[in-house]
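Weekly sync, protein design subgroup
Attendees: M.S., D.O., the rotation student, P.L. (late)

Item 1: inverse folding check
M.S. brought a backbone from last month's batch and wanted to see whether the design step gives back something sensible before we order anything. D.O. pointed out we never logged the input encoding, so this time it goes straight into the notes. Structure tokens as presented (405 positions):
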């Protein structure tokens, strides 16, 4: 393949794209670019340019190739697309610093450890649905199920009081921002969360417990494996990542299944297929609008998708487009809960592959299993047009999801 010149042959395209007309399909611009030029220069809201990557193979290369740096993306001159806490957390690091911190917490998220947690998560699902069944209908699924489930799980794992969930979730919303958000509010939320974790760490030092935060404090105090700042930021990142995405996925999974009643009916009759269904929903569901990947910066000249990118180029993998790439998936725009070959990028790839992927998978499986078993006729009581999403967020975060059954 002949390489294109570094300078684009066409004018950069404005990004992010306008919102799509449907909650269930990506903006049509993604497919047009993926088919024509999967590595395309775009202009971002701050006026800076970046290279948008819409192909599956190309997006995966960005995430696994060490020449694409997350640390370099935190520089003052790089574009900012949101997620205020990312640059100052493990998400903003490259190896070996990233490897050191990731190793400290990886043991809590192994497949074996997650399976040990499954009975507890299944019990939480049942307890939440017990309460849901007693409430007057319609019931807000966000407030009463999809948010409290992952919050309770990550709080128990970290040793955070679940009674604080409304407080830290409000801060979390401000941190999980997009380019439209007020940077001052995001900065204030990060500072509040940091102070919250500093208080929690002090309490855990005074009264150690059998939880992940106590173990991390020991790694800090006894083994000197991380700084106090890293300890705070690691706890903050785990708390946000451990509940925000999963809660929104539960909501969007249910909406998507109701949109495709034949697939939902088939899943009801074959609940053993739920693990495979979760993988397909991870691929198919439109959780965000801005592409879904974290910005990287090239450390040297790199060829990507037939384009020669210079050192210092900002590169944005569009995972929601990559997950619909016909070069990687048969009939990619079809929801197929029996899909066997599914190399989706919903959890990322490479060194920044989602640390809690196994935990998220298990929680989503148990949430779906509980909803299908306990609320067999579940339906949303308002049309899609009346659903309200929080503004200025990187994820589609519903304010409420009224359901009956």
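Designed sequence read out in the meeting:
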């Amino acid at each position: 393949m002949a390489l294109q010149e570094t300078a684009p042959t066409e004018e950069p395209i404005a990004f992010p794209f306008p919102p799509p007309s449907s909650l269930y399909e990506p903006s049509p611009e993604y497919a047009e670019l993926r088919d024509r030029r999967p590595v395309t220069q775009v202009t971002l809201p701050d006026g800076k340019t970046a290279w948008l990557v819409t192909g599956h193979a190309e997006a995966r290369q960005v995430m696994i190739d060490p020449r694409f740096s997350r640390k370099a993306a935190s520089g003052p001159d790089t574009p900012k697309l949101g997620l205020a806490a990312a640059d100052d957390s493990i998400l903003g690091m490259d190896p070996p610093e990233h490897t050191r911190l990731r190793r400290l917490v990886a043991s809590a998220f192994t497949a074996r450890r997650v399976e040990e947690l499954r009975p507890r998560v299944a019990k939480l699902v049942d307890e939440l649905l017990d309460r849901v069944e007693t409430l007057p209908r319609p019931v807000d699924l966000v407030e009463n199920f999809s948010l409290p489930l992952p919050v309770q799980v990550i709080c128990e794992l970290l040793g955070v009081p679940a009674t604080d969930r409304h407080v830290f979730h409000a801060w979390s919303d401000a941190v999980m921002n997009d380019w439209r958000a007020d940077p001052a509010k995001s900065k204030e939320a990060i500072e509040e969360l940091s102070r919250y974790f500093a208080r929690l760490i002090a309490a855990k030092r005074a009264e150690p417990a059998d939880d992940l935060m106590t173990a991390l404090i020991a790694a800090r105090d006894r083994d000197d494996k991380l700084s106090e700042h890293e300890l705070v930021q690691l706890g903050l990142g785990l708390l946000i990542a451990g509940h925000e995405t999963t809660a929104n996925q539960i909501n969007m999974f249910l909406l998507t299944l109701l949109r495709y009643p034949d697939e939902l009916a088939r899943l009801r009759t074959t609940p053993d297929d739920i693990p495979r269904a979760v993988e397909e929903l991870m691929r198919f569901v439109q959780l965000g609008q801005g592409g879904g990947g974290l910005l990287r910066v090239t450390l040297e000249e790199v060829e990507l998708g037939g384009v020669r990118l210079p050192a210092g180029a900002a590169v944005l993998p569009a995972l929601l487009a990559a997950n619909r790439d016909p070069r990687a998936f048969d009939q990619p725009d079809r929801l197929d809960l029996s899909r066997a070959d599914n190399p989706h990028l919903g959890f990322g790839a490479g060194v920044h592959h989602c640390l809690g992927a196994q935990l998220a998978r298990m929680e989503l499986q148990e949430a779906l299993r509980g909803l299908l078993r306990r609320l067999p006729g579940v339906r949303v009581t308002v049309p899609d047009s009346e659903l309200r999403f929080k503004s200025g967020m990187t994820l589609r975060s519903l304010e409420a999801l009224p359901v009956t059954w």
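Discussion: Residues 13-404 form a domain with the Cytochrome p450 fold (CATH 1.10.630.10). Residues 131 and 151 are 17 Å apart (CA to CA).
Action: P.L. to compare against the previous round before Friday.
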